[in-house]
Amino acid sequence: xxxxxxxxxxxxxxxxxxxxxxxxxxxxxxxxxxxxxxxxxxxxxxxxxxxxxxxxxxxxxxxxxxxxxxxxxxxxxxxxxxxxxxxxxxxxxxxxxxxxxxxxxxxxxxxxxxxxxxxxxxxxxxxxxxxxxxxxxxxxxxxxxxxxxxxxxxxxxxxxxxxxxxxxxxxxxxxxxxxxxxxxxxxxxx
Length: 190
What we know:
It contains 4 helices and 6 strands. Helices cover 51% and strands 27% of the residues. It is elongated.
């Protein structure tokens, strides 16, 4: 060891190796965990900013609704209601027929997909509420714009309805009409 220290070149190499090792240990022990933590905090910040933007849009919508409905209590207003299970499908077809006629949407296929399933969600008061969900699959023929307006009105019905999936297909014989395979979820109360 004494002879190594007397060789200046070897001493410099030893100091350099110790410096590189200490930088590596410092990076592995301190810097890398802090970089990961900073990335995690940045992702959380972006998520919170998106939530805040969504909430501010919701507040703006609520203010617009209050201006449009003076004197009405927004907490008591429920535009979409789940119908009883026994009549949810029949009332959906009854209510959707005029919408289809208005937007010139033709229906080729209607079929249930699976069985009625139960879903439990938490309402605005924090209570657990159980809904029954029925899934229906349709094959529609309409122009792109008419189909979009039709689906917009379907989701805006006072019945609790969700357009779950839409798959558009080019339909050469009837172009500009498109074929659309649409999955719609209907929710009802048990």
